[in-house]
Design goal:
- This protein is of the alpha+beta class.
- About 15% of the residues lie in helices and about 20% in strands.
- The termini are far apart.
């Protein structure tokens, strides 16, 4: 696959928003991985915790 005369990257890096998490991208990851792409969807700092979990920041 090419774009602008060059080759497109084979890795897609997905960043979620303020009130989301990596789970937000699960359906997109399945689709793109089925097409041969490598997908990375990390959890942003403090976004991978249970919101009910008591913590002090």
């Amino acid at each position: 696959m090419s774009w602008g005369g060059g080759k497109m990257a084979q890795t897609i890096f997905m960043i979620h928003g303020m009130f989301g998490g990596p789970w937000y991208w699960e359906n997109y990851q399945k689709k793109f991985e089925a097409e041969g792409y490598r997908c990375i969807a990390p959890a942003l700092l403090y976004h991978d915790m249970d919101p009910k979990f008591p913590c002090k920041l």
